[in-house]
Amino acid sequence: MSGAAGMDLRLPIGGLFVVLGVILGVFGVITNGDTAMYERSAGLNINLVWGVVMFVFGALFLLLAQRAAKR
Fold it and tell me: Are 8 and 62 in contact (CB under 8 A)?
């Protein structure tokens, strides 16, 4: 296939998750010392945790898209 019909959807989805993961992770790092903000989550910096999870998930998608493009 050629053109837009041949575009791998893992590229934009992976890129989106990487960007959002970085934004959320940076926010988690910036607000790391605010204990009142993370009181409801038992002191767990949920923004940082989910930022890292989203980043890894997006990087995995981009890696899979790159491997598929090489074939």
Answer: no
Take residue 22 and report the two structure tokens written for it.
Answer: 């970085």
How is 3-66 classified by DSSP, letter by letter?
A: GGGG--THHHHHHHHHHHHHHHHHHHHHTTT-TTTTTTTTT--HHHHHHHHHHHHHHHHHHHHH
Residues 13-63: pLDDT tens digits?
999 999 999 999 999 999 998 889 999 999 999 999 999 999 999 999 999
For the whole model, what pTM was predicted?
0.85
